[in-house]
Amino acid sequence: MAMASSSLQHAFIFILLGSIRTLALDKYIAAVFEHAVILPESTVKPVSPEEALKLMNQNIDILEDAIQKAAKQGAHIIVTPEDAIYGFFFTRETIYPYLEDIPDPQVNWIPCTDPE
């Protein structure tokens, strides 16, 4: 999960810095990216957390490449599908391997400095 978190952190920083830079502009160039999400063979059978992470990382790699290409072409705002990392058509049980536990706010834990 550290690889996905690291990629997501880099993407967030990239988006944040790009957003700050675009605030000063009068006009914006937007890019919209549609993506055929890489899914497991069956979304009615649960996959292992490792398989879910592998699939999400493949989708993140595709998104990262598309975002970098759009930025190089001058896009200030890049829109991707909301389910582009994990996909869709899951049941309550089959989505669990794609999710992360979020600790209670009362727990004094910072996952970035203490991932375990």
Automatic annotation (TrEMBL):
It comes from Notechis scutatus (mainland tiger snake). Residues 1-24 form the signal peptide. Keywords: Signal. This is Pantetheinase-like. One of its GO terms (molecular function) is pantetheine hydrolase activity. Residues 33-116 form the CN hydrolase domain. Belongs to the carbon-nitrogen hydrolase superfamily. BTD/VNN family. GO terms for biological process: pantothenate metabolic process.
